């Protein structure tokens, strides 16, 4: 269990789908019980021969006690504290949203290295969003489809240095 990866991003970009793909069906719970606050989930991930710990910053959507920005910041900070590397996930089909830019700005100032991943890139619908992702200032985005398992080799190669 070499390193810890935090999966970060605004709601609905596919964080839990990626988490489930990395951790396996054993722990798969994409839809949490209504009213149940889960601050996050952690699991032992496998990606080919890589073994690492992954943190899904779930629960962001279910917390009621703070502003959106406050919840986001707290969740992100807690995950980053333990992470050796973070994935900032965006939804390439939706394009770059203000909240994505907010996360990117926060992560650019943070010392934890960030891999920018553009999810929902299966087919052609993600292409414009993939290009927009360069504007986030986090380097080349990796095109991925967490749902269909496409782009996992590129993610693997991006994670290799942290082994
Ligand atoms: P989270 O809120 O960031 O954890 O996002 P979820 O993992 O719950 O996914 C949000 C929605 O996006 C769900 O309906 C998923 O099925 C969908 N989704 C996740 N990954 C992909 C993908 O690669 N392609 C497409 N088209 N949809 C996806
Ligand atoms: Mg989730």
Automatic annotation (TrEMBL):
<feature type="binding site">
    <location>
        <begin position="119"/>
        <end position="122"/>
    </location>
    <ligand>
        <name>GTP 1</name>
    </ligand>
</feature>
<comment type="subunit">
    <text>Associates with the 50S ribosomal subunit.</text>
</comment>
<feature type="binding site">
    <location>
        <begin position="56"/>
        <end position="60"/>
    </location>
    <ligand>
        <name>GTP 1</name>
    </ligand>
</feature>
<comment type="similarity">
    <text>Belongs to the TRAFAC class TrmE-Era-EngA-EngB-Septin-like GTPase superfamily. EngA (Der) GTPase family.</text>
</comment>
<comment type="function">
    <text>GTPase that plays an essential role in the late steps of ribosome biogenesis.</text>
</comment>
<feature type="domain" description="EngA-type G">
    <location>
        <begin position="3"/>
        <end position="163"/>
    </location>
</feature>
<protein>
    <recommendedName>
        <fullName>GTPase Der</fullName>
    </recommendedName>
</protein>
<feature type="binding site">
    <location>
        <begin position="9"/>
        <end position="16"/>
    </location>
    <ligand>
        <name>GTP 1</name>
    </ligand>
</feature>
């Amino acid at each position: 269990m070499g390193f810890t990866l935090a999966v970060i991003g605004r709601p609905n970009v596919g964080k839990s789908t990626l988490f489930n793909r990395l951790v396996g069906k054993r722990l798969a719970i994409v839809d949490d019980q209504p009213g149940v606050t889960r601050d996050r989930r952690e699991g032992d991930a496998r990606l080919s021969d890589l073994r690492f710990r992954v943190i899904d910053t779930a629960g962001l959507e279910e917390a009621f006690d703070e502003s959106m920005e406050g919840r986001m910041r707290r969740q992100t900070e807690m995950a980053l504290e333990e992470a050796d590397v973070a994935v900032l996930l965006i939804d390439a089909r939706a394009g770059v949203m203000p909240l994505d830019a907010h996360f990117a700005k926060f992560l650019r100032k943070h010392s934890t290295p960030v891999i920018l991943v553009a999810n929902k890139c299966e087919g052609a619908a993600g292409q414009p969003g993939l290009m927009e992702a360069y504007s986030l200032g986090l380097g080349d985005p990796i095109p991925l489809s967490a749902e269909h398992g496409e782009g996992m080799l590129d993610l693997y190669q991006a994670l290799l240095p942290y082994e």
